[in-house]
Design brief:
With about 120 residues, the chain is an all-beta fold. It contains no helices and eleven strands. The strands form two sheets. Strands 2, 4, 5, 9, 10 and 11 form a six-stranded mixed β-sheet that branches. Strands 1-3-8-7-6 form a five-stranded antiparallel β-sheet, with no helix packed on it. The chain is globular and about 40 Å long.
């Protein structure tokens, strides 16, 4: 059965770094595209970074600006690294697994960036 749990959120200073984790023991990572999203009240959920389904590798590392996505199919874990945090990065962050329009989501973890 599916179980997806994010962790690692919290309060961090602007300019700092934070790593979020996502554990999904019930998912075959090789069958899904992977992504991290974030959402703040009053706004739609926003894509932060993704690893498309057609990337077939047991370990994935993708960097986009201040964000880096990594995944390990053997460990059934995925991470989001955020560097040089900005106040506007404050949001609930969700890990996502997707395949042909079908998405699986965790419950989210709160990240708050403030001085």
């Amino acid at each position: 059965q599916v179980r997806i749990v994010e962790s690692g959120g919290g309060l961090v200073q602007p300019g700092g770094s934070l790593s979020l984790s996502c554990a999904a023991p019930g998912i075959d990572f090789n069958d899904y595209g992977k992504a991290w999203y974030r959402q703040v009240p009053g706004k739609e959920r926003e894509l932060v970074i993704e690893a498309p389904l057609n990337i077939h590798a047991p370990r994935i590392n993708i960097k986009s600006g201040r964000f880096a996505l990594s995944s390990d199919s053997a460990k059934n874990t995925m991470q989001l690294q955020i560097d040089d945090l900005k106040v506007e990065d404050t949001a609930v962050y969700y890990c996502n697994f997707n395949n042909r329009g079908y998405s699986l989501w965790g419950q989210g973890t709160q990240v708050t960036v403030a001085s």
